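stage 2 :: seqdesign
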């Protein structure tokens, strides 16, 4: 049965009201170690070992006004993106000082991704020389768009500093870094990580096993520390 003309007109208007998702362009392999998303100025380079288990998402870095291949250590205004690899759509954006090109890279700055096995959540870890500067959890919805994000580093640092006070260590003397290789993100939003409190270029070190539960699949994300125990001290 043919739809009335009025119904067809409404359908056309509704279709026009939903814009196509814009992206930088598909992330494709090239001569470098990781895929390039888009081309020319504003293109993004995927960060090594950050692609999601299902291969659909990744972390990528870019300069919004430069070709990634021309970026060097003198550049500022770099961005870290959570990106959809099929079309280069940007789900989330943050500041970074990380980049990596052949022969040039950000010295003592690293970006890494801790994914849940179902690829619906990822924790971005941004490490500087001595500390982890950002611990951000992103949740990806069933439609492939960002469903929420939350900064976890203030919570971790505050909890670790409180424990240092209890053992009569001055928290102001300590930096806190997250050991990526001893961390895990579950599909249920449970992040378990090793937080290392240390004094730069000195021996005292205190390690903590931290478990954080992130909730809020259908609304704003919330996080709470469910356990924190000391595992090592010097």
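stage 2 :: out
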């Amino acid at each position: 049965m043919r739809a009335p003309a009025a119904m067809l007109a409404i359908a056309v208007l509704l279709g026009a009201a939903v814009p196509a998702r814009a992206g930088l362009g598909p992330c494709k392999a090239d001569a470098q170690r990781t895929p390039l998303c888009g081309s020319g100025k504003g293109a993004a380079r995927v960060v090594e070992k950050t692609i999601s288990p299902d291969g659909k998402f990744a972390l990528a870095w870019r300069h919004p006004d430069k070709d990634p291949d021309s970026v060097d250590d003198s550049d500022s205004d770099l961005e870290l993106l959570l990106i959809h690899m099929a079309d280069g759509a940007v789900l989330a954006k943050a500041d970074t000082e990380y980049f990596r090109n052949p022969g040039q890279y950000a010295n003592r700055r690293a970006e890494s991704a801790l994914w849940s096995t179902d690829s619906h959540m990822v924790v971005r870890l941004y490490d500087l020389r001595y500390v982890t500067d950002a611990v951000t959890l992103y949740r990806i919805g069933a439609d492939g768009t960002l469903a929420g994000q939350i900064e976890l580093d203030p919570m971790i640092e505050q909890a670790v500093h409180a424990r240092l006070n209890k053992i009569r260590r001055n928290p102001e003397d300590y930096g806190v870094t997250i050991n990526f290789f001893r961390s895990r993100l579950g599909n249920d939003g449970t992040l378990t990580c090793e937080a290392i409190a240390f004094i730069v270029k000195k021996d005292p070190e205190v390690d903590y096993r931290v478990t954080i539960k992130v909730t809020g699949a259908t609304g704003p994300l919330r996080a709470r520390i469910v356990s924190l125990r000391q595992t090592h001290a010097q």
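stage 3 :: structure notes
- The first helix runs from residue 5 to 17.
- Helices lie at 5-17, 153-166.
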